[in-house]
Amino acid sequence: MSAVIARHAPNWAACLLRSSVYAAAAALLTGPVLRHFGDWYIGWPGDPQQFMWYLGWVWHALLTGQNPFYTQLINAPAGQNLMWNTSILAESALFGWLMTWLPGAALYNLLWLINWMATCLLGDALLRHLGVRPWLAAAGGLFFGGMPYFTAQSLYHLHLWATSVPLALALVLLRALRHLPRRPAACGILIGGLAAFQFYTSIEIAATFALTLAIGALFLILTLRSRAQQAFRLPLRTVATALLTAIVLAAPGIWTLLHGSARPQGKLLPSEAYVNDLLNFVLPTPVYALHNAWTTNLSLQYTGNFWENNGYLGIPGLLWLVFAAARLWRIAEARAAAYTFAAIAVLSMGPNLHIAGRVTHVPLPWLLLEHVPFIDSALPSRLMLYGDGIAIGLGFRALEEQLRRSSRPAAARALAGATLLCVGAAWWPVTPYFHSPTPAAARALTQPGPVLDAVAGRPTYFLSTDTPDVMQALADGGYRVPMVNPYGYTGNPPPRRTALAQMTSVLNPNVPESDIRAAAARALPILGAERLVYYPVQDGQRLPAAAERALTALLGPPVAEADGVQVWQVPNPLPHP
Q1: Closest CA to 318 of 199, 190, 164, 423
Q2: Beta strand 70-71 pairing with 40-42
Q3: In the listed set 404, 427, 450, which residue is the last one of a domain according to the structure?
Q4: Banded model confidence at residue 78, pLDDT cuts 50, 70, 90
Q5: Is the N-terminal amide bond of 45 cis, ω within 30° of 0?
Q6: How far is it, in rounded angstroms, from Cα 376 to Cα 369?
Q7: Which of 398, 427, 456 is the last residue of a domain?
Q8: How many alpha carbons fall within 13 Å on the CB side of residue 238?
């Protein structure tokens, strides 16, 4: 009996060693942020601060009797449907209570570190489940943690760099398919719960995860043929429980998505822009350490932006993938995985082939998905989340196969190590990873003082070169200020959309003072703003002189100033410009 227990007991020393290596890698990447944990944050200004606002929202809404799926604190007073935006309700519900003690930047950084560690450990577990020996699987955990997709998306998008959630769901599904669960209902609850968690983290990733599963299942059926039925032998109780759990948990969000107020209309983003250029699979963008001036200039020609160019595997990674497919080709499941990777890679290139930023108008299969609900608003380039995962799984399983069958173990281990070093060097991020400080202006909205007193509870339009930057300060200040600006997707009527567009001219240095005054006079009453705030996103940044003169002529002198922030009261009615 003791021998059985010892055989199945976890090796805590090995777990601790693996975790220490993963933590050391995270510390190497984020060293400056760790030293300023509550003030600096991982990534560049913009979307990270949006996610800081969302992280505390669910608990704030519940404690103040508000609907967590909808807010009037963004796009005030009209409001914003959060199910149509990247509101990370799952992470907010799980971790948002920590905003009572932690500033938004600290919680954002903490989630990045938790996700890194969880992804590394889950990747290690998945590879060991595929039969990869412990030391090799431990190395594979690092590759899952630092997959190229994650490196690029870490610049901005929490809902996309939360890779531990789809990886956990993939691992649970794989285990259930390969070994019948001893507790079918409990397994179903776990699968359904993870699916719902992913739904509330990112509807896009939930939809593309289902798409990838469908593609993989199709290729598995085609490769296994008569044995296909054995590969899908989940107990009916597991399937039913998983579906019931997912539907029950996701039902409020689905209802809000389909029938809630303030829903946007039409396609959210153009699928032709955010695609993987053919050259992106080979050449690194500026987020990888291996980039140089030539690759950077070339990557800046791609459509979209370089943090959405998610196809990069590099020459070492592509050669590794070819080797893996050839080494494992006799295994039907590996062939299905290779076919799935190829399909995902082609789909990630969007509706037309792009080469060096030029749209060739060579049609690609994504055209067939452009009218599929939920998939139609997904960005094709992001599909490489699954491409990277499949490539890592195939690559490490092939190295394991090579080690098992080699007649020269030492040489095989050396070759495996050299392979991992080459691929790892090609994938390694810029170190330390990109990070940003919280602007000094945030103090004016988070600490008691004249600025916060002037705007608390008042619908406020923020003049800023990057709207989401202010959301960090609004969250840290306790959600006391309704922001008239929208950020994300709204159901605004045309007059409000026009007024918002007119306000963007205020910060344009080429617009005459009289035009600024006229635009603000037309727009502010339509928007329902009671206060107008200039918020500098960089220390020392100033409102253009023409804009300051125009606003003072229209609204009077600022009623409060601190840390570069200026507050104007909007009279009702406004004087004629």
Answers
A1: 423
A2: unpaired
A3: 427
A4: very high
A5: no
A6: 6
A7: 427
A8: 18
> Strand 358-363 and strand 460-463: pairing?
unpaired
* Nearby residues of 14 by Cβ (< 8 Å), 6 or more positions away: 134, 138
Q: Are residues 251 and 368 in the same domain?
A: yes
pLDDT in tens, 300-340: 999 988 889 999 999 999 999 999 999 999 999 999 999 99
Domain shared by 412 and 450, yes or no:
no
Count of C-beta atoms within a 10 Å radius of residue 371 = 9
- The total of other beta-carbon atoms located within 10 Å of residue 540's CB is 8
Task: Compute, in degrees rounded to 10, the torsion defined by CA atoms 6, 8, 13, 19.
Answer: -170
Work out whether strand 460-463 and strand 531-534 pair parallel, antiparallel, or are unpaired. parallel
* 245: three-class secondary structure by DSSP: helix
Does residue 348 have a pLDDT over 50? yes
Give residue 264's domain range: 2-427
Helices 164-178 and 203-224: angle between axes, nearest 10 degrees: 30
Do 459 and 340 lie in a common domain?
no
416 and 564 share one domain: no
51/134 Cα distance (integer angstroms): 36
Angle between helices 203-224 and 384-405 (to 10 degrees): 40
**Calpha distance 103→424 (Å, rounded):** 34
Judge whether 69 lies within some domain.
yes
Q: What is the edge-to-edge ordering of all strands in the sheet holding 565-569?
A: 460-463, 531-534, 565-569, 560-562
Neighbours of 285 (CB within 10 A): 25
- Residue 57 and residue 106 in one domain: yes
Rounded Cα–Cα distance for residues 490 and 494 (Å) = 11
Query: Shortest CA distance to 88 belongs to which of 222, 3, 204?
Result: 204
Number of domains in the chain: 2
Instruction: Assign 274 to helix, strand or coil.
Output: coil
Closest CA to 401 of 341, 325, 465, 337: 325
Residue at 577 is within a domain: no
pTM (2 d.p.): 0.94
Q: Where is 560: in which H helix or E strand?
A: strand 560-562
- Helix/strand/coil for 363: strand
Count H helices and E strands in the chain, helices first.
Answer: 24, 10
* Nearest-angstrom CA–CA distance, 346 and 323: 20
Q: Say whether both 547 and 416 belong to one domain.
A: no
DSSP letters spanning 409-425 = HHHHHHHHHHHHHHHHH
Per the domain annotation, does 437 fall within a domain? no
Radius of gyration in angstroms for the set of CA atoms belonging to the chain, rounded to a whole number: 26
Answer yes or no: do 227 and 305 share one domain. Answer: yes
Separation in Å, CA 373 to CA 259, 270, 370:
15, 15, 8
What pLDDT is attached to residue 2? 46
| Domain presence at residue 433 | no
Average predicted confidence (pLDDT) for the chain: 94
Q: Beta 352-355 vs 40-42: how paired, if at all?
A: unpaired
Let me know whether 392 and 461 are in one domain.
Answer: no
